[in-house]
Amino acid sequence: MASASLQFFAFILALFGVFGDITATLLPNWKVNADVGSNIITAITQMQGLWMDCTWYSTGMFSCTLKYSVLSLPVYIQAARTTMVLSCILSAFGICITTVGMKCTKLGGDPDSKSHACFAGGVCFILAGIFGLVPTSWYTREIISNFLDQTIPESSKHEPGGAVYTGFISAAFLLIAGVIFCTSCFKKQQGPWIYRPKQHHFPSTEQESNAGYNLKDYV
Fold it and tell me: What is the pTM of this model?
């Protein structure tokens, strides 16, 4: 019962991780313009994401431009696109597989099959968490390195946006859920193994004595 409750808790974490992963992939605010120097009072907020760049005006207008050219993008953005999409796909597969393998569901057949499905779903969640953690870390590193670069003008510096933090939290949820699912499917040993000592059969003294009497009768 405790294992089933733990799996259900991990499934809820995985759902939050999947939704956060998809949201972080689609949001345009992976990095926003930093309010430093002469830009501390500005009427325009510029945001850049994996798929589009958006600009928000103080008048309430909001405009976005899609990034159609893939080859013109920096390497870290191309890698972030690929890994985030893979993370979304793996996490979706993990949701489907763990639904079959959880102990609180009646799907999946016998307990061994459900245990294997549960383990496979946990592996999908762990891989999805890793694929989600790599691009967010790399993207954050690029933002910080550009921010600390003295050769870049203050107006071109950015800070991590909400999508980056959402990606970090989602990756953590997926990793925790994957570890719980992988560890909860192992069978606990019911008791210590008892090795019985080998029994050596020796001929009894009674049989030897009877055999002796029988031989004497023939003499």
Answer: 0.77
List of residues 6+ apart from 90 with CB closer than 8 A: 124, 125, 127, 128, 131
**31: Cα separation from own chain's centroid:** 24
Q: CB-hemisphere CA count at 13 Å for 130?
A: 7
Would you say 80 and 137 are in contact if contact means Cβ atoms under 8 Å apart? no
pLDDT digits (tens, 9 = 90+) for 111-158: 788 888 889 999 999 999 999 999 999 999 999 998 888 888 877 788
Cα torsion 112, 131, 12, 165 to 10°: value is 170
pLDDT tens, position by position, 20-29: 999 999 999 9
What is the SS3 string spanning the chain?
CHHHHHHHHHHHHHHHHHHHHHHHHHCCCCEEECCCHHHHCCCEEEEECCCEEEEEECCCCEEEEECCCCCCCCHHHHHHHHHHHHHHHHHHHHHHHHHHHCCCCCCCCCHHHHHHHHHHHHHHHHHHHHHHHHHHHHHHHHHHHHHHCCCCCHHHCEEECHHHHHHHHHHHHHHHHHHHHHHHCCCCCCCCCCCCCCCCCCCCHHHHHHHHHHHHHCC
- Alpha-carbon dihedral 85, 87, 90, 93, rounded to 10 degrees: -80
Structure tokens at 160: 């991590």
Residue type, 171: A
